[in-house]
Amino acid sequence: MSPAAKPPPPPDPLPPLREVIARHGLSARKALGQNFLLDLNLTAKIARQAGDLSASDVLEIGPGPGALTRGLLAEGARRVVAIEKDPRCLPALQEIAEAHPGRLEVIEGDAMKIDAARLLAPPVRVVANLPYNVGTELLVRWLTPPEWPPFWQSLTLMFQREVAERIVARPGSKAYGRLSILAQWRSDARIVMSLPPEAFSPPPKVHSAVVHLEALPAPRFAADPAVLEKVVAAAFNQRRKMLRSALKRLSPNIEAHLRAAGIAPTERAENVSIEGFCALARQLEGEIS
User: Fold this and answer.
1) 92, 20 in Cβ contact below 8 A?
2) 129-163 pLDDT, tens per residue?
3) E strands along the chain, which residues?
4) At the topology level of CATH, where does 17-215 sit?
5) Between the CA of residue 39 and those of 17, 27, 60, 89, 163, what are the distances in Å?
6) Residue 37 pairs with which residues in a beta bridge?
7) Which residues, listed in sequence order, are joined to residue 125 by a DSSP beta bridge?
């Protein structure tokens, strides 16, 4: 092996996930949006999609019995902070922490109520099989912090396939909308893996996909975030209407603003680029805040 080659990770000393789940009685709960991954080869592959973890703190949300947690540690994460709401999972996660001294901190609590940024040392990568019931809301929070760049360098997140397609959608497609613009205005977003229902226990009714987002140092186009958010929300709230109708509540001069931004007043939201929405937000900055 050459001096620069990365040594292989040590073998995982812990028992198979099915055994851990059976021993701790960890049946997945629908109310918590739980669908557990059991294949450690698959979770290691997901961890690798986040890039080199050896110099990063990693935030994981909803680790459950710890399949992805084990993958992150096996792939060399400097440190993992895992936030878990379900107290039943804590003993299994504690076993992982004991097998990797000093590299895993488990916090019991609701990720929606915890300021995770203060728990981590930069650079930070977020890697998670997000609970379906809070995944999109967490993503929006991470994409809309008060200041940019955010606390995270990258997000590698699993969603329902439909949500993943909305994140990476381009103008002109039915999936293109508010989530596409929020994600792509400030990050590079791409789908890096697809997973069938049978990869999970219990199998969900939908396919899943892993999306990787790399934070840009600055937004692609100048715009006030609050104004842009209001414009985009109004435009896609009535996406079948022409923009002059969908946005008329924002300004009595909306047609003139649209033309000044290079957008035809008869255009519909799904056909307007991120650059176009940012130009329109700049036009409206004096009228809405």
Assistant:
1) yes
2) 988 778 999 999 999 999 999 999 999 999 999 99
3) 36-37, 57-61, 79-84, 104-108, 124-129, 154-160, 187-195, 200-201, 208-215
4) Rossmann fold (3.40.50)
5) 8, 16, 18, 18, 23
6) 200
7) 58, 154
If 0-12 CB within 10 Å is exposed, 13-18 middle and 19+ buried, where does residue 218 land?
Answer: exposed
Higher-pLDDT residue of 211, 24: 211
Close Cβ partners of 13 (under 8 Å, ≥ 6 residues apart) = 99
Domain extents in the chain: 17-215, 225-284
Closest CA to 216 of 168, 150, 288, 169: 150
Q: Which residue has 């996909």 as its token pair?
A: 209
Query: Quick one: CA dihedral 48, 50, 55, 58, positive or negative?
Result: negative
Q: Of all helices (H) and strands (E), which one includes residue 232? A: helix 225-237
CA distance 288 to 271: 23
Polymer length of the chain: 289
Cα–Cα distance between 163 and 62 in angstroms, integer? 18
CATH class of segment(s) 225-284: mainly alpha
In the sheet that holds 57-61, the strands lie side by side as 104-108, 79-84, 57-61, 124-129, 154-160, 208-215, 187-195
In this structure, which amino acid lies at residue 97?
A
